[in-house]
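Bumping my old thread because nobody answered last time. Still need a sequence for this structure:
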């Protein structure tokens, strides 16, 4: 058997799953041309055929040469075994461990983005905090660009707590004021048109004051 004239391949440069160097067994390698397992004889891939049909000719062949196809160009490829069987087994185990770890056990669904409520749907008590947040986001804050601004996180937490308190306030007076404000807006044309009258502004201011007091008490207790 003669080699194919190509440069020899080092076993250390091949994928470990493309080699078989187990002690007591025949050494095998995957042919770089046809991708099939072949035996190594004198550190060379044993001659074989690639399975591609050859055109019929008048020449007479001995054996199964026409059915086996043409001679694979990977036949006779030299492979220099520059690693020990122990080193090959370690590399094979590391490759298998990496492949298993990279497989996803279960599908991870991306959370759906939550739609922020419209300003008219937000409680009036959160308006000062929202104005501070909008003013801060418009500034040239380097931490905001990196997404690690503690001020933004704090303001958003305060807005969330204020909205929760306004949605379910503990003070009975707040509920009475909210009922009175709704009844007032139902009959007041300026409040319906988005330009609150003096009475509407006073009711809103009293509700805002109660909600802010509740927020301060909640923050102190926390």
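Sorry it took so long. Here it is:
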């Amino acid at each position: 058997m003669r080699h194919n004239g190509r440069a020899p391949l080092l076993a250390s440069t091949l994928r470990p799953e493309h080699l078989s160097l187990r002690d007591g067994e025949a050494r095998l390698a995957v042919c770089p041309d046809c991708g099939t397992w072949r035996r190594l004889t004198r550190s060379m891939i044993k001659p074989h055929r690639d399975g591609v049909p050859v055109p019929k000719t008048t020449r007479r062949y001995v054996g199964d040469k026409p059915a086996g196809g043409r001679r694979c160009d990977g036949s006779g490829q030299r492979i220099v075994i520059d690693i020990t069987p122990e080193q090959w087994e370690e590399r094979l185990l590391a490759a298998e461990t990496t492949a298993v770890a990279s497989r996803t056990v279960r599908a991870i669904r991306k959370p759906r983005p939550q739609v922020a409520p419209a300003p008219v749907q937000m409680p009036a008590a959160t308006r000062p905090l929202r104005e501070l947040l909008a003013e801060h986001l418009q500034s040239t804050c380097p931490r905001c660009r990196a997404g690690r601004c503690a001020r933004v996180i704090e303001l958003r937490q305060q807005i969330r707590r204020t909205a929760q308190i306004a949605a379910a306030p503990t003070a009975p007076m707040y509920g009475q004021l909210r009922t009175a404000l709704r009844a007032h807006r139902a009959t007041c044309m300026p409040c319906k048109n988005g330009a609150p009258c003096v009475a509407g502004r006073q009711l809103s201011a009293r509700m805002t004051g109660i909600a802010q007091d509740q927020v301060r008490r909640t923050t102190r207790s926390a």
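The beta strands are 9-10, 19-20, 28-30, 37-41, 44-45, 79-80. Let me know if any region looks off to you.
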